[in-house]
Design brief:
CATH class: Alpha Beta
Order of helices and strands: HEEEHEHHEHEE
CATH superfamily: Ribonuclease H-like superfamily/Ribonuclease H
Number of helices: 5
Strand content: 25-35%
Number of strands: 7
Largest sheet: 7 strands, mixed
Strand order of the largest sheet: 5-4-1-2-3-6-7
Number of domains: 1
Radius of gyration: 16 Å
Oligomer: single chain
């Protein structure tokens, strides 16, 4: 085991091209001046092919809450569809440190963090922090979605998803 508690053999196998693994990038955003919040995640396989992508509007919340919501949704989707082993990537250093139990959990996200930790338990999942530049798909989804929300200027909530060349946009 290394410093983060991850089995080094698992990590070596995970990055071996013969082993199939998945990567889930997550992003959350909040534009308080526009009263818009969104979360997004995208899943790719080890060949970098897009497997699934989803973005949706959420009730106005902080950027941290949006990040945690995106991470939770992405993890839940991957676990429910057995997309394992999995690398979860987030551009939120706070989220990574809280999951690793290196930092205290802010009360506003404590329920979601408990849910995330429960999902992570006994799963082949590695959590990585990446810079925003490495999170292009999720970041692009968020940006496009916030523009779409702003243009709609309605109280309805939108969901947009992509799966194997099939796109859907839903008003709720």
């Amino acid at each position: 085991m290394d410093n983060n508690g991850w089995n080094q053999n698992f990590l070596t196998e995970l990055f071996n091209e013969e082993v199939c693994y998945f990567k889930c990038n997550t992003d959350g955003s909040c534009r308080t001046q526009l009263q818009l919040s969104s979360k997004a995640f995208s899943v790719r396989n080890n060949n970098e092919d897009l497997v699934y992508a989803e973005t949706e509007s959420v009730m106005l919340c902080s950027a941290l809450e949006a990040e945690v919501g995106a991470f939770k949704e992405g993890l839940q989707y991957c676990v429910n569809h057995n997309l394992l082993p999995l690398i979860m990537e987030t551009d939120s250093l706070i989220l990574k440190k809280v999951i690793e139990e290196k930092w205290e959990i802010p009360w506003v996200i404590s329920v979601d963090i408990r849910c995330i930790k429960k999902k992570l338990k006994n799963k082949d999942v590695v959590v990585n922090h990446i810079f925003r530049e490495g999170n292009n798909v999720a970041d692009c989804l968020i940006t496009m979605f916030l523009v779409l929300q702003e243009q709609q200027r309605s109280n309805s909530y939108l969901t947009m998803s992509y799966q194997h060349k099939r796109e859907t946009i839903t008003n709720r």
